[in-house]
Each structure stands twice: as C-alpha cells, then as structure tokens.
Amino acid sequence: MKCFLNYSKYCDFPIENLPYGVFSTTNNPIPRIGVAIADSILDLSEVSHLFTGPELQNNQHVFKEQTLNSFMGLSWKAWKEARETIQSILSEGNPAIRGNPDLMKRAFTTQAEAIMHLPAKIGDYTDFYSSIHHATNVGIMFRSKENALMPNWKYLPVGYHGRASSIVVSGTPIHRPHGQTLLAEGTPPVFGTSKLMDFELEMGFFVGGSNKLGEPIPVEKAHEHIFGFVIMNDWSARDIQKWEYVPLGPFLAKNLGTSISPWVITTLALEPFKTDNYPQDPEPFPYLKHSDKFNFDIELQVDITPKGSNVSTTVCRSNYKYLYWTAKQQLAHHTITGCNVNPGDLMASGTISGETSDSFGSMLELSWKGTKPLTLLDGSQRKFLLDGDTVTMKASCQGDGFSIGFGTCEGMLLPPKR
Predict the structure, then answer these.
(1) Comparing C-alpha atoms, which of 53, 28, 55, 59 is closest to residue 43?
(2) Structure confidence by residue, pLDDT tens digits, 270-320
(3) Pairing, β 174-175 against β 403-414
(4) Quick one: which of 387, 68, 405 has its CA closest to 209?
(5) pTM (2 decimals)?
(6) Cα separation of 37 and 52, whole Å?
(7) Among 90, 146, 206, 284, which lies 20 to 30 A Cα-Cα from 340?
(8) What long-range pairs does 91-100 form, CB within 8 A, spacing at least 24?
(9) Could you write out the three-class secondary structure of the chain?
(10) Which residue in 133, 134, 290, 334 is the catalytic one?
(11) Active-site residue 134, yes or no?
C-alpha cells in the first residue's frame, strides 16, 4: 500500500495503521470522528458518502456522530469494510479525495491544530489484573515469595469494576487526592493527602457489538467484540489503596482519574503483530481456552518529566505480550455469567510488567515499595510521583518498513485541591 500523503517510515500513523479518534478544532468546536494518517486527520464526517460497501452503505450516519459508539456497535465485518475503504480512498491511485480539491481541503486537518476528546462515551469500565510478573511482584512485597499469587489467580482473569466517569483523555491533569491512610499498624487511620502517588502502565480495549443479558460471549467469538486498543495510565494512590482494599478491592485509590490515549488502534491493524499467547499452567477451563493467537508484540515505554524541566527519563520499557490472560479470555470471563456489555465499554489489562526490573510497570515495583529510589536524568530521585511530574506513556509495533504507533498517554500530577 502507498498513501498519497507523504510520511517517513518512522511515522506513527501510516496507511497500515489508521486509528480512530474524536477531535474538534478552534474553527469547528463540534467533536467529530477522524482517522490519523501521517501528521493529519481524515475527517470521516466529510467523506462518509464514500462508504458504499454492503455493510456500511446504510450505516454512513455512524461517521457523522460525535463519538465512536455507534460505529463500534456495528459488526466486525463493518469494521473490516471501513478499514479497507479508508485504505482505498487514501491510496495513491484513488482520485476519490485526491482528485477533488474542495473535498481535499475539507477532509483533512493537521493533528497539531486538533483538540482530542474521549473516543467513546464509556458506559462501563473494568480493570483486570492480568500480568503475572506484576501480580507476583506485588504478592512478594505484601505477602511472601511462597504466597505471591492468590490461589485463584491462575484459574481466572481477576478484575474489578472501575469508575467510568473519571476516565479522561491524554493531556488532562490529575490532582493528588485526599483520603484515609494508615501510618502505622495498630494505630487509627488518619485523613489527609495521599503521599504515595503512582502510575500504572496498562492497555485497554474498547468493546464492540453487544450481547443480551443472560447470553455469554464465547471465547471463540470474543475477538469479534474487541474493536481496538488504547494506552492507559490507571493513576493510583498506594497508601489509600493499602488501607481500603480489604475486603472488596480498590475504590478511592483508583477513581481519582484514569488517562487514556486518544487514538484507538484497531485489532485489525494489530493482526501482523500477533504473537504466542503466554503459557498457562494449569490449563484453563474450557470456557477460557482458545488455541488461536491473541497476544500482541506491542512495545511499551514510560517517561517521567519533572516540573519545569525539559529532560525526560525513561523509567520503564515493557511489552503487552507479558500478559498472562488474553483480551479474549478477559471478555469471555466477564460475560460468562450473562453480563451484558455495550459498545464503548472499556476493559483494561492491569499493570503490565516484564521479567526484569527495568520493565516493571509502576513506581511501586520500580522503587520496590520505596526501598530503591530511582534517579532521574536531572539528578532528582523518586520513590513515588511528585507534584508537577508529567508521566508520558508510549506504545508501538515495529513492522517490515513501517511502525504502528499509539500516540501518547500523558498527564501531569497536580497538587491537591484544597
């Protein structure tokens, strides 16, 4: 494939990628659906009439809406047809856009002038705990090496329902929260500002299609309901979490804010980067078992930039492939009870940590509960995040002569609101 727009082989958004997002501009503040290509955005509301295939000719309206929910609600066949259509109209030999100067002018916006929004109205949000290295590290810290994983961990994708209303798009600052913490065992808790703010390197996927209440999504069909992926930072107040999480799990420690990248990289774009699923022992129950590959070689990176500094330090390099439970297993488990999911629901992987200490996906692990401070390039040290720190997460897949980029998931930690 060759696009009629020029870009380098290092571009995050080549014609092999084509992620979806929602954007507006100063001149046109109405949010609309776009596709990232090179350093531009193709405004799908301007080219919706070009989607004339059997799946989309009667559904062109989905590209004129202000969120991706309706498009996500169509079938995987429609998603595939849309991708093929966009690749065609952007290709070098197709005059549909390129040969129409007026449409060409209306259809493209530079990414630099775009204001990005959440890609979908997120009705529900579930956070899993699917990285075996992360779960093992945390278990060793708070229990012991011999009892690192809870008895259920290798039998099911552990998860909890999070707060959808506080999911924000990249670039939105997050305030350090107030809450209850326990300063010392055996003493009463105190109320105050969280002292142990952390990031969590995660990926999330948006649900497409839907299922009726009482009808599970079988694991062999789960991929038909996984629209695409985003980078996620699930900000965490570790001291609040430690006091509150027994017996029902995280609550206020996680609902203060969750950042996601604005571009949704489709599962179709990730097909060339499928890799072996993580070996599972014991063998999963039949409702979780699938032999097809649904793990992805996605390189992940986390940078910290101190307040007022232009020097960023990479503190973590990890990879999506380290997840023990696949996205298909997560969705199949989530719905095995008959739980109904809806287009635009978001499901997160949990912190993604690798095998080595430089691949741990949280400050909790990188500083090993504060006992091993990190030294940043400006000479400052971190056990946990300081006010003014900007956390930037990146993800990419390296293809043969092209890259699939996810953009960035970025946020600054601000002081608490008084």
Answers:
(1) 28
(2) 999 999 999 999 999 999 999 999 999 999 999 999 999 999 999 999 999
(3) parallel
(4) 68
(5) 0.97
(6) 21
(7) 284
(8) 91/1, 91/2, 91/3, 91/4, 91/15, 92/2, 92/3, 92/4, 94/4, 96/47, 96/50, 97/47, 97/50, 98/4
(9) CCECCCCCCCCCCCCCCCCEEEEECCCCCCCEEEEEECCEEEEHHHHHHHCCCCCCCCCHHHHHCCCCHHHHCCCHHHHHHHHHHHHHHCECCCHHHHCCHHHHHHHEEEHHHCEEECCCCCCCEEEECCEHHHHHHHHHHHCCCCCCCCCCCCCCCCEEECCHHHEEECCCCEECCEEEECCCCCCCCEEEECCCEECEEEEEEEECCCCCCCCCCCHHHHHHHEEEEEEEEECEEHHHHHHHCCCCCCCCCCCCCEEECCCEEECCCCHHHEECCCCCCCCCCHHHCCCCCCEECCEEEEEEECCCCCCCEEEEEEEHHHECCCHHHHHHHHHCCCCCCCCCCEEECCCCCCCCHHHCCEHHHHCCCCCCCEECCCCCEECCCCCCCEEEEEEEEECCCCEEEEEEEEEEEECCCC
(10) 134
(11) yes
What is the tens place of the pLDDT at every residue in 355-408? 999 999 999 999 999 999 999 999 999 999 999 999 999 999 999 999 999 999
- As a whole number of angstroms, the distance between CA 409 and CA 320 comes to 15
Say what the alpha-carbon torsion angle 232, 238, 243, 247 is, to the nearest 10 degrees: 30
